[in-house]
Amino acid sequence: MSAEARDAPEIGELPGPSSGFVQSLARGLSVIRVFGADAPLMTLSDIARATGLTRATTRRFLMTLIELGYVRTDGKTFALTAQVLELGFSYLSGLTLPQIAQPQLEDLSLRVGESTSAAILDGSDIVYIVRVPTHRIMTVGINLGTRLPAYATSMGRVLLAGLEPDALSNYLHDVKLQALTKRTVGSEAALIAELNRVREQGWALADQELEPGLRSIAAPIRSSSGAVVAAINVSTAASSGTSESLRRACLPALLDAAAHIEADLAIAARSH
User: Fold this and answer.
1) Residue 73 maps to which CATH number?
2) Are residues 264 and 140 part of one domain?
3) Over the stretch 132-148, which tens digit does the pLDDT of each residue have?
4) Does residue 7 have a pLDDT over 60?
5) CA dist., res. 100 & res. 269, Å (int)
6) In what order do the strands lie in the sheet with 71-73?
7) Element (H, E) at 205
8) Are 120 and 84 in contact (CB under 8 A)?
9) Is the entire prediction scored with pTM above 0.85?
10) Could you give the C-alpha distances from 67 to 4, 31, 62, 64, 83, in angstroms and in order?
11) Domains in the chain, number
């Protein structure tokens, strides 16, 4: 009997294989997956127990992973190396900004129970590139590609605050500020003061400036060079609370989502 046959798992240990299923590959991946934040260092026995594989099989997979550079050992315990990140580089390198942001915004929407979006700046408008709706709170329909005036939106203010001085000067020269609601910023001086505040605090909040009853909070998405390349936001009905309650409830999760998107963008950029 071959060593592979002797080490075959018990029925039910792994999903039933299809005609193209490679069991040894599945086992090797299961060894990688048992490591995590709660278990960065593991012994051979720990890994065998967690994967359901025999010690002999586990040891062979570990030795192979060590040889390939994905695992290191001090002779007693085993740990993953940074090289395992390369396994995700090819996937991330083919993704666009919307594809990278989408899962993070879906998770953010679930965490805060509100609609989330991502947008970029195009001329004097923001353009929506991701939208995760929960319930309708706007009379203006929002879809991918929807354009809205940057000065009256939280994402627009984050994007404007990230512009170089010359680019912002050109924007202010060309834009015509209109009172979309009684709360809309009404002057260039007021808008500049707001952008300075956004730049200093690292996020923006727009309270019923685009349309009555709509409140949103936004954060920038920066490239590895520090340039603001996009913005993400959480939008909610003004009747659901105050501006301060929105900040307390959503800002930490919003900034966390932005950090994760930036990390994935950095990985994608390095893999090119």
Assistant:
1) 1.10.10.10
2) yes
3) 988 665 555 677 888 99
4) no
5) 12
6) 42-43, 77-80, 71-73
7) strand 204-207
8) no
9) no
10) 20, 15, 9, 5, 12
11) 2
